[in-house]
Amino acid sequence: MQLDNLYQEVILDHYKNPQHKKLSPTFDAQVHHINPSCGDEITLNVTLSGDTVANVSWDGVGCSISQASVSILSDLVLGKTLAQAQEISDSFMTLMQSKGTQTGDENLLEDAVALAGVSQYPARIKCALLGWMAFKDASVQALAKNQ
Amino acid sequence: MSFNAGAVIADFPILSRTVRDGKRLVYLDSGATSQKPTEVIDAESNFYRMHNAAVHRGAHQLAEEATDAYEGARSIVAQFFGASVNEIIFTKSATESLNLVAYAMGNAPAGNRFHLKSGDEIVITEMEHHANLIPWQQLAARTGATLKWFDVTPEGRLDLSNIDSVITSKTKVVALTHQSNVLGTINPLAEIVKRAHTAGAVVVLDACQSVPHMPISVKELEVDFLTFSGHKAVGPTGVGILWGREDLLNELPPFLTGGSMIENVTMTSATWAKAPKKFEAGVPNMAQAVGLGAALTYLQRIGMDQIFSHEKELTKYGMSALLEIPDLSIVGPTDLEMRGGTLSFTVGDIHPHDLGQFLDSQGVAVRTGHHCAWPLTRKLGVPATTRASFYLYNTNADIDALVDGIRSAQKYFG
Question: Closest Cα to residue B144, out of B124, B171, B125, B116?
Fold first, then answer.
């Protein structure tokens, strides 16, 4: 079924067993992002150590795509430098805009390549990007705070 | 003539197409927008093909024909729900109609019955679509008036137990929906209108979900303003209706100003034409208005009574079929009295977006999310729902496809 391109096993796994889904008591920045067209919500905390992502945690409600995507993102960027996180994020953005023509760089994106199928469903791209936009916002705020 | 769904379906060309690799299209999203019969599509395109010219201007035959077609559509709308022709205003949407009333009230100077100031009250309900909530919320913020509202009960009905303290002598306007776009609830207007009029307030009715689906007479409803959108009533997009009582339209200041809506203009001042022209600045959406005229003619030929009872049967069948599905909860009244053909529901832990996506893969088109009524879904404690909404071209087979789809989704995501 074509739908299996969208709902890869990895996505459903992350949805049922989300990673880092427990807001840390302390953080450098906390952001709350909403998808106004559907009501999906994510609160995300970022703590930096120098220019390294020392902790990412989140809480939220939403569809399997939005929740799995932020779970995958948290796994991916934890322990990376902001420059590496940026590179991953850029690559993910390109994948989401690819309309199904790309499969994604597995070395860089790891589990996030499972979201490649989302790019064939225009209405769902914003679901996949919700957590990534939240992380981008939070890391900029955390960096500004620490400088 | 008894209702024949098969003949109706044949009138809607889009219903014969397939989606998602050859699946039959099962369209259950008429609450968002309805599909269009051939004669509406033809009426709109024939206007462009044969009669296009700017209405109310131009000294040529086309301008005459265009004006006749446009004003003819106005007569059809007036006759459709028993209004006078001068009480029918064409807007671009129901959203614009509601904003028109709210902004025009905001323009009313002291002494005008619509003038709002600190201490005045605006009453809405918790089940309003954003289009009948935000214009009033913002009008209150601009004028210093207080926004009040009727709560919604857990069963999805308006809580009118405190009606005398919600609507008071300070109330200037009561704006509410006739039928909830999320819950399907039909609101008991008589009691609210009576109380509002006793208090000296005007009643603005959002009839987007009722005018397309049931016989309506503005005189019987006794409201003061009524709005609906063409595209939910098998008409084109880009055209909405505002109906208002003539004396009120004459007192209400204009919203948009410009060409067509004037009586006299100098460099420093202007006076207004009478309604409806006062509220129709600029060249209007003519082809769309003509299309709406064709749409209402079509609906009347089928019969609004017939459409209402057909949808009632669909709702009865759909309600009992859905309630048999384990873990499915209806969001809204489960009794069939005073409710229309809109069924919102949740299915266990399956997020509505995921359910909607799965149903789409089966050819079943539904709406998911908060349905532009975020305060309502928050109140009911559901971040989002899945909504199936019925219309004259739906059949029990469509509901069977929905039910099969939900059961398959439970296996897929289970």
Answer: B116
Distance CA B271, CA B324 (A): 62
Q: Kindly tell me if the per-residue pLDDT of B54 is higher than 70.
A: yes
Please write the tens of the pLDDT for every residue from B59-83: 899 999 999 999 999 999 999 999 9
The residue count of chain A comes to 147
A7–B412 CB contact, under 8 Å: yes
CA dist B71 to A40, B156, B257, B287, B293, Å? 45, 40, 20, 12, 10
- Bridge partner list, A55: A47
Full domain range(s) for residue B337: 5-30+303-413
C-alpha pair distances (Å), A42 with each of A53, A80, B205, B216: 19, 21, 36, 44
Mutate: best of A59, A63, A66, partner B, most B CBs <10 A = A63
Q: For residue B268, what is the domain's CATH number?
A: 3.40.640.10
Q: Domains (ranges, CATH) in chain A?
A: 3-146 (3.90.1010.10)
Tell me whether residue B208 is one of the annotated catalytic residues.
no
Cα distance between residue A94 and residue A71, in whole Å: 19
Under an 8 A CB cutoff, do B351 and A63 touch? Answer: yes
Contacts of residue B78, Cβ cutoff 8 Å, sequence gap at least 6? B84, B85, B87, B88
